[in-house]
Queue: 2 jobs
Job 1
Amino acid sequence: MNGTDNSRNILEVKDLHVSFRMPTGDVKAIRGLNFTLARNEVVALVGESGSGKSVGVKAVTGILPDNAVIESGEILYNDGGEMIDLLKLRPSVRKKRFAGKKIAMIFQDPMTSLNPVMTIGAQLMTAARCHTPMSRKEAWAKCTELLREVGITDPVRTMAQYPHQLSGGMRQRVVIATALSGDPDILICDEPTTALDVTIQQKILDLLQSIQRAKGLSIIFITHNLGVVAKLADYVGVMYAGKIIEYGTVFDIFFEPRHPYTWGLLSAVPEITELADGNDTLYSIPGTPPNLAKEIVGDAFAPRNPYAMEIDFKAEPPMFRISNTHSAATWLADPRAPKTEMPPELAERIRRLKQEEADYVNS
Amino acid sequence: MGKYLLKKILISIMTIFVILLIMFLLLQFMPGSPFNDDKLSPEQIEMMRQKYGLDQPVIIRFFRYVANMFKGDLGVSYSISANTPITTLIARRFPVTMEIGLVSLCIGTFAGVVLGLLSAFFRSRVMNVIYSVLTLIGIAVPSYLLAMFLSYCLGFRANLLPMLYDVRDPFTTSIMPVAALSFMVMAIIGQFTKAEAMDVMNSDYVLLARCQGLKNSTIMVKYILRNSLIPVITMVGNLLVGLLTGSLVIEQMFSIPGIGTLLTQAISSNDYNVVLGLCFLYSGMYITVRLVLDILYCFADPRVRLGGTKS
């Protein structure tokens, strides 16, 4: 979607469909997911809970639960110029060649992400040694170094500690270190700061950013926090009901959003200045996400969309290309659609943001 | 840790004395006396009572009993085996019960852990049926019924195994009682292990280990086994005590000369000292096992261990 040079892409997800087999019938969690991840780039996936963000990346890492079925699609990994479809590999081969080594992942809750009965050192060393054979001594040296890289001040002491002796922020640092132990190319972060204190969140984000730059990692970042997106991401995919409905650079999504759902998401971000002005009504998108166990006709967002047109209830909109970097799946982007502007409050907010940014750059 | 243990031990000792006191009082209210024999005249019975000190008030008898206990003297039997010290009586029979109980526990626990882990790992239809049938039978069917069934099929019909226990051939004669007892253990441990293993397998840290690309065998041993077996320790302790006390019926059925049979005889013939002695043994055992488990738990689970020592 971004650019034409495919060789820069390290990962391409093409038309992925994932369903969950439930006793009551299939739930179509992912309904045609498309995105590409270029080397040294951060793609953020945002959306409400249940929009399929986590399922999508779990399909990429190959840790979907047993009742999940990949109905169709491709997950292509660029291995030195050769595009390998991860879904066509045998699970054991895929695990051996890719898990941790090429694609690593960190989870939301660092409190439950570490084995409670093993010391940090033992866990890190097990991970490091399963990727590259090395002596215990080498592994120990490598792991203390890793801990230092993720900002742990006394790695030697931490190596001998158990997870419950560390704070949440420390644990998330350790989790990041285990993810880095296999020197992966892609790091998938599934809401890595959601479970942390606000003060720690910022530090972890800074850490991820500096590691990304230092190691040239490609990151897929899942979040529902738009502030995180603005800080970290190069590209943003807004997900709704199992697919990306708007995709573009951070600039595109924040300053020139085209999809009514993105408008809603941006309007729903509370802003200190507005609250201070006495405007304390917080916008929320009306309605609830669709039930994915049922067949969806037309645009999945249509029932909640105040701008919905007749066609939205009949046919699903394709991805309309808006610029080289920006595309949106809404009939409003169709040239035949009546010209519709974003809500004036949002336009005003964006104008102010742009002004602030300009001031910031000029100062 | 040391302080914690000392406190536990003190509380345990107190508990044993309270249990003994309650037993003493309860036995007092039990109808009949140890000397229910038509051939004895009322005068003779009175003589016997005086001889054993049974004419004294309960509270004095209790303190005398406790005092003797510290000297390692649990009194003598009145009726079952007159004038034999309780300690000798128990020492002769306890090893038999202990042996059968421990063997059943080991076999049952091992089988249960294997069953639980297998059914947690291989969730195929066949495995599920095997698991459900085994645990259902083990938990729903009492072990004496199972013993009767075994005894009938293997002993009476097929004539493969001896139906009664024989001290001279403890191995073959204890196969059936051990099988009956360990089946229940297997079912309980199996169910527990499966639930624990499933929990651990769905945990974030196992998921993370999987996406790190750790070998399945590593995940199995270092992640799943250790985390799911720690809670099983508690279960095993409870079952051990249950096996040693609750195998009464099985002992009767195969006429095993263990303490279970001794206890039933003692209760029906009002042999106070035997009942008290066994009671003391059982509660002492239960409390010791709990204490040992606490300590074991500390070693197995770093969270408990370090929580106790943190200054």
Job 2
Amino acid sequence: MDELTIKKQKEHDVLTVFAEGRIDTDTTPKFDAEVSPSLDGITKLVLDFEKVSYISSSALRVILKLQRKMGEVNGRLIIRKPTDLVTEVLEVTGFLDILNIEK
Amino acid sequence: MKKGIGINTTAVIAAVVFMGILTTAIASIGYKLYYDNVMDNYVSYTKTVVEYASRAAEEYSFGDMVAAREMPDGYEKFRSELNKIKDCSNIEYLYAIYFEDIYDIYSLHYAINAKTQEELSSGRPLSEIYSYMGKPCEQGAFADDTLLILQKAVKEKNRSTGTMEGYSEGYGYMLNGYHVIYDSNDNAVGLICVEININKINECVQRYITLVIITAFVLAAITIILYLFYIRRHLIKPILSIEKSSEAFVKQIQNNAAPEDLIYEKVSIRSGNELHLLADNVQSLADSVASYMNNLKTVTADRERISAELNTATMIQQSMLPHVFPPFPDRKEFDLFASMTPAREVGGDFYDFFLIDDDHLGIVMADVSGKGVPAALFMMVSKVIIQSCAMLGRSAGETLTKTNEAICSNNQAGMFVTVWFGILEISTGRITAANGGHEYPAIMKANGEFELIRKKSGLVVGGLPEIRYKEYEIALEPGDKLFLYTDGVPEAKDKDKNMFGLDRMLDTLNEDKGASPEKILANVRNAVNAFVKDAEQFDDMTMLCIEYKGADHETD
């Protein structure tokens, strides 16, 4: 089984990404390739992490990049329902302070 | 590769076999056609002679003579008529016969016979040469089945002329023609017979067959020689030259010739047929192989060069990190040990420590996002910037803030580094620390357990500009230990992707918490190795442990 599955849902200028699995060094390129090219005209990007069990620092790099892209168009990046382990990673790395988290 | 029978020999054998079959076929068909044809001619010739003789018999009322078994005046006139017929034709015998008793095939008698001038002039008396009416036929002159056919013709009053082939000891192969004779009352009384010797036919046919076989053989031989010459020139020779060239090429490869020396000798084929295409294709295949091997050599050389460069890079990186322990032999206030194990040749993790002044020790534990050469380059830059800022006398928080600014001002690749940076005041054991998104350190207070210092982190360094990093303090008493690590330790995975985890890490630390920093690092590394077993090391793994011994252990 693939360790990461991605589903996308687009409504006007809102893109919601449902990720399931682990976003680690192996699967981050897939995550990046699925999300980054779909941002044309998007001003609100929601990353639904309810079913993400783990994220590594390589995933944080992509999240940081997405955050910058949203910043460029005055948009917003939202992390929705991060699991405890993901929240812990975000907290340790200081990302909790700069990201919009939606519980 | 062992060769079977060569294509050349095969072609010759096939041609000879073909020639044999062809010659036999031509001879057989020729024999059959020729024999049938000659036989037809003889049959029709025989019939003509028989019919001519039977007409003469009618004219001379020979039927009545036979019926009466008499030889009147006309008898010898009729014979001289028959003699003329025999003179003018090429027949062996001409005679008339009758059955004395139609139900007895052996009651055959001669009625008359004919002779040529040549036979008559032999000097023998006429009474011996001629057969007269009523002379019994010699026993065995006719085969039984011949007699039965003749009997049947008379019995059934056959009006047409019949022929048959017969063989008898005394006369050999004969073609026999017969016609029934009638008297003036239309009774069948006997037969006029003609015999032609067909032993001659067989001689003829044999001569013919010999001629046909010789001709066919010569023609076939000429054709085959021409054919062989043609396929040799246009088929076999080109194939053999392709074979020769490719074998030479394969030999070069087997002998490990240098790729740039590989030569496929060009095969020139003039004809524009499939062989030409084959030669071209083999040529381009060989050229491709040669150029592929050339490429491979270049790529291999490149890889070897890169590998050599990476080895050097590993050495440079390792030597950039302080790696002599104990690092400050004359400082007895603390004991410190650190190690970095990259997952690849070079890594993005690093530790660092340096004396800022006599009383202050800078301690760095950092992890650059990503792995390999890009991470290593970024790591070198980060390490230099952090140390430079710290050496200027800035506090831990200011150092990270400045480092973040420096990195953000020129960070096209979007790299970042998690950094824990602490400054130990050696005389008091007080550490001022700032955390840029790095793992929480573990502390062991004297006689206590190792536990994580869960102080709030700032953002990773290089993530966003204009971040200010806050500081916190850790007070170390003599005997206290501080353990720093990168995420390679808790996130080490076994082959089922289970992570080593922080709990296991803390358990390992506490199992032998009294150990020296060097032993503690060895314990953790052993525990991680035992956990991941033969799974590949996935991330860089870096650890540092410092034990504070107190200001009492002063410099000698």
